[in-house]
Amino acid sequence: MKLKPVLATITAVAVTAVAALLFVARGPLTGCQPPVSDEAVVTIEGRVLNQDGTPASGIYVRLVKSDLDVLDADWVVGHIVNTDTKPFRDVKTAEDGSFLFELQGADANAKNQAWAAYFVAYAVHPEHDAENDKRLAVATDSFSFSNQNLNKVIPDMRFWDLAPDAVTVDADKVTVTWENTDLEPEDGRYLVHFEGTQWLEEVKGNTFSLPLIALEPCEAPVVDSPETCTVKTKHMVEVVSLADGLRYRTAWHTFDATNPKGMGIWYRADDNTSGRTCSGKVVFDLNDGKFSGANAVYQKDAPTTAEEMRCFQFDLGKPYVLDDIFLQNGSLWFHKDARIEFFVSDKDAPQDADWAQIDQWEGKDNRFAHFNLRIPGNGETARWLKVELTDIGAKASLACLGELVVYGTAK
User: Fold this and answer.
1) Domains along the chain?
2) N or C: which end of the chain has fewer CB within 10 A?
């Protein structure tokens, strides 16, 4: 049976930040311009508007600059989405919503002075602390300067807010709806991200639903026992309107909900119940009640090899009748014919013949993909769970395996 994942696959260079996904449709930006004269005066100006088009005064506009020769997704992740408290420049908008940056010519160049630097300006939503908030409100195209172009007038940056009733919660899912924005691309693509998780989906249309059991269950990581889990009730959803390059708008909405199944049956305990590669080596623990990817295992983490990253076994400690299995924040390096297969065994020490396949997820023609999967347990009894990556063409391997959560009833 081919798995129909809850969330669609998103191809990205980096998967830990929203803005990196904006580069899917357009590759890295490059440029080759002579350095700007050190004595030149460089200016950047524009306006910030409220959602209704009126001027937004007293709003922080933040300018960030690439120290690289090119502006690429890795730089964006480090300097825009994961904003620090020391941006290149900050200004506040005037009463008419306007802002102006005035820089020295030397500031417009990359460190090596052989290429022009790239800049991105973005506004911080007025409801959040500009010095500490890491969530974006709106951003513009990237831009650079030359001796023939020392002034940049950037497009209006207009906030986008979701309606008060944008998020509804029922017995088993949370649904978010939104209106189109003036930055809506032709194919109507939006990116939906639930804070505290790695659950992302690129959506066509104006609505999206997520099962409540995919919400992060705990306020803080659980180290020793599920009894220490403080139930998380406050959540936030972000909706990003995707346009070309770095021009996009994002809105967010907070809502109250809880994960009805909590942490699941796999939690951090001791080395005897840790995840293992199929070669038998203990490599990591999973599901500490936080779905932020903190438990992710990467191929680069020695001494786990690429071959070991193709197969994992998890001892559930005792037999369970399975309901749902969630795999969050995974990524692959794979051939188009690669697939992830899920097996269970009710034996205490399973041999090759003791494993039964319960589902599989088929890859696509991408080299590197971010994925989140909901696997039906199908009522199977399992003492062990195995996740294995197989392929028909070129050899594939998991680049990252994040959180794995198993829900079921002890038998």
Assistant:
1) 30-158 (2.60.40.10), 167-256 (2.60.40), 271-410 (2.60.120.260)
2) N
